[in-house]
Design goal:
It is a single chain. The chain is α+β, with helices and mostly antiparallel strands. Helix content is about 55%, strand content about 20%. A hairpin with a 6-residue loop joins strand 8 and strand 9. The longest helix is centred in the N-terminal third of the chain and has 67 residues. The radius of gyration is 54 Å and the shape is elongated. It is a multi-pass membrane protein. Its EC number is 2.7.13.3.
Length: about 600
């Protein structure tokens, strides 16, 4: 067998297809899992940061709540209220006789009253109370010297008893300032300043951030870093606006402490206006992604090599029988019709061999059948030509009758013969598509014959727009419908009947309507008639059925074939076809 130029063995094609498919699949799987791993690790980072931030926020809130409760207990303490009021009066000129010694007694009373409760909280180093007159009451073991903080007395009083938080001193301390209001009239008696070590919050940050080498930053309303797991950044301005971080589309920032690209999470704003921000190094997570991708790549490479070896062995076993099949097919094509392939297996290749043998047997049988069919077709064509002799003979005979009637002075006989001859000629030619004018000529020939039959019993009204006469339509659509209207609607009624034929163009459609004022039908009869039209096996309503079937074959449901009738008032048959302004190319002129 001679191989064609460019021939490639099916074995190599199968191996090549397998390699390409496996490579594309492996690349797709690799890319998918790479993307998936990266997404999962990012989700883990975000989840971790949310947990860290939530835990840190809870701890900070608890610590602030402890200090807040302490300040409230100091404010409402009866001894504090009474003695602070006396101090304000003495310095305000209300009791000058008691002198300075009395003020010191009152200050000592306040100090002794609250000293025990202050040091129950480990982080607090000192508490100062200032009267309206400027007297200071210091309670503590350290920080006797004054530490600067962000709030003035006016700002503290304007807070109306609310807690104000800020850094104090050299940023190693955090202070909480709060006005002391009289429980009697809610007027200011003074204010307090509670100082606590910054480590009070920082120790909690180092605990929650140790798992993933992350960092936690506590930032106040002004953007100043109040506390951080990196002590060197305390007191510095955080380089990002809080609102900017919340609206930021990127998931990473440059960590203020390490400078590394890091994932970040911004927590909810605390009650005092501070915000917790957590960062985790992106490199730590991407190292995990890279390790997972490397393992997956090695696994895919091993699977590729093993599967290629197995596929090569399998393809060799499959290709052997196909070569035998190809040889037998080549012999069969060269004319050796008895060539068959020996089937040795029951797999797909064996089934192909069996199918080939059956096909070869069928081809021999079909060759005999085709020869027999060609003979039968020739005989049928001869019979069809014979059948056309009778219509031609009738047409010629009608032409002779017309001539005899005309020469004999009987023009009615002549006209009748001419009309019948036109109908017969149209049926002999039977073009697929004719103009509306040609169809109307056939209709008028038919109605002329009916006029001689019924006389004045049937009147015909035409409503055919002149512009539609040159449009094309399938031949012999109207005559069966008109015949149906005459036979079933008008023929058996006593009074004169009217038949209306309407053809109009609406948009891109030709609309046909045949209306008679004959006996009409009940709705059940109309439905039965439509079912007969749709039933190809029915022998009733042959004319209507032929028109309906032709419309369905040519135009489908868009022809909108409809029958409407009212008992005793008449029947209307309508349909539509697309406007055709030129004769179809396939139609012979």
């Amino acid at each position: 067998m001679k191989r064609r130029e460019g021939f490639y063995s099916i074995r190599y094609k199968m191996l090549a297809a397998y390699v390409v498919l496996l490579f594309v699949t492996s690349v797709g799987v690799f890319c998918f899992f790479t993307f998936r791993f990266d997404k999962v690790y990012k989700q883990q980072a975000n989840s971790h940061m949310a947990d860290v931030t939530g835990l840190a926020a809870a701890n900070v809130s608890n610590m602030m709540e402890q200090i807040d409760q302490l300040s409230v207990s100091v404010i409402v303490d009866r001894a504090v209220q009474e003695n602070l009021g006396i101090i304000n009066k003495n310095r305000g000129g209300y009791d000058k006789e008691k002198g300075t010694g009395s003020i010191e007694t009152n200050k000592a009373a306040i100090s002794n009253q609250i000293r025990g409760s202050i040091f129950n909280i480990n982080g607090i180093t000192s508490l100062r109370i200032y009267s309206l007159s400027g007297e200071e009451i210091f309670i503590g073991t350290t920080n006797r010297e004054f530490l600067e903080y962000s709030f003035g007395s006016d700002e503290i009083y304007e807070a109306n008893g609310g807690a104000l938080w800020s850094l104090a001193g050299d940023a190693n301390y955090v202070c909480m300032c709060r006005a002391i209001l009289s429980t009697a009239n809610m007027k200011p008696l003074g204010y307090m300043v509670i100082i606590c070590q910054n480590d009070y919050f920082g120790d909690e940050f180092s605990t929650v951030s140790s798992a993933y080498s992350g960092r936690v930053y506590l930032v106040d309303q002004e953007g100043e870093t109040v506390c951080s797991s990196d002590q060197e950044l305390i007191g510095s301005i955080f380089p990002y606006e809080i609102q900017e971080l919340r609206e930021r589309k990127q998931s990473t920032i440059e960590d203020p402490g390490t400078g590394e690209k890091s994932y970040y999470y911004t927590g909810e704003t605390l009650e005092n206006g501070w915000t917790l921000i957590c960062t985790v190094s992106a490199k730590q997570f991407r190292d995990g992604v890279a390790a997972s991708i490397l393992q997956m790549g090695l696994l895919l490479a091993g699977a590729l090599i093993l599967s290629f070896i197995v596929t090569t062995v399998v393809v060799r076993r499959l290709v052997g029988p196909t070569k035998k099949l190809l040889l037998s097919m080549s012999e069969f094509g060269e004319g050796k019709l008895d060539s068959r392939v020996e089937v040795s297996g029951n797999d797909e290749i064996g089934q192909i061999g069996c199918a080939y043998n059956e096909m070869a047997d069928n081809i021999q049988n079909l060759m005999e059948k085709v020869y027999s069919l060609e003979l039968a077709n020739k005989e049928a064509e001869i019979e069809f030509l014979k059948m056309q002799i009778n219509p031609h003979f009738l047409y010629n005979s009608l032409d002779t009758i017309s001539w005899l009637g005309f020469t004999g002075g009987n023009e009615k006989v002549s006209d009748l013969a001419v009309s019948l001859a036109k109908l017969l000629r149209a049926s002999i030619q039977r073009a697929d598509m004719i103009t509306v004018a040609e169809e109307m000529e056939t209709v008028k020939s038919y109605l002329l014959i009916q006029d001689y039959r019924f006389g004045d019993k049937i009147g015909v009204e035409y409503d055919v727009a002149s512009e539609v006469l040159q449009y094309y339509m399938p031949s012999f659509l109207l005559q069966p419908l008109i015949e149906n209207s005459i036979i079933h609607g008008l023929e058996n009624q006593i009074e004169k009947g009217i038949l209306k034929i309407s053809i109009k163009a609406e948009n891109d459609w030709l609309m046909f309507v045949i209306v008679d004022d004959g006996r009409g039908m009940e709705q059940k009869q109309v439905e039965m008639l439509l079912r007969q039209c749709k039933d190809s096996q029915s022998g009733n309503a042959i004319g209507l059925k032929n028109v309906y079937r032709r419309l369905q074959l040519l135009y489908g449901e868009e022809s909108s074939f409809e029958i409407k009738s009212v008992q005793g008032k008449g029947t209307s048959i309508s349909f539509r076809i697309p406007v055709t302004r030129w004769k179809p190319v396939a139609e012979k002129p």
